[in-house]
Design a protein that fits this description.
CATH superfamily: NAD(P)-binding Rossmann-like Domain
Strand content: 5-15%
Length: 255
Amino acid sequence: MQEPASAFRLDGKIALVTGASRGMGQAMAIALARAGADVIGVATTDMSATHEGVEQRGARFLPLAADLSDGDAITPLVAQAAAWQGHLDVLINNAGMVRRGPAIDVDIDDWDAVINLNLRSAFLLSQAAARHYLAQGSGGKIINIASLLSFQGGINVPAYAASKSALMGLTKALANEWAPHGINVNAIAPGYIATVLTSALQADAKRNADILARIPAGRWGQPEDVTGAAVFLASPASNYVHGHTLAVDGGWLAR
């Protein structure tokens, strides 16, 4: 039996984190490195700050540029990631987007863009990673980044709410199939985290005040607030956790 502290270590593991250039993706990549993992970051924008943060924790970092909305790019991307050090152990499906506007006015191209990145790419990445996990025979971890809107409907974000609700369902479905093979599929549902994705809400004085009034913790979350859950779900400490969506929301859902 592992000692409690070592159960949270990721020494020798290779983790793939999408959307790793900033915000939660960057924070999780650095936290995984601190726990001992080498990290592969995927983004369409500059990852130099993430690269530096990972290496400062004594880990290796491989930056891969990819447009995850292009489904044909995903299988070769995961193959490249698995070939880097000969194995792949952790996948965090963090990349996502939001398009805001009343449902009555949603353009179908905007709808498709959100669903393709937030849901379709997460499935394709999970499928590709699971194939490597099965071939390795060593199991693996898949962590989807869901949302409070996996539980609620939100306002003026119908495609985002649909994608994140579906992602929670997908997490359960994949866990049901892959748990017998030692593959843990779980999700994190961040609350209101201060990132670029939520900048419009932070800048809206009324919405910002309304949001803060409902959060028992009394503040917006920071990207680092999500990292403990990410390390837990990536580590052996979560080996008997399957199909769960862990809210990291300052108490929002309890209100």
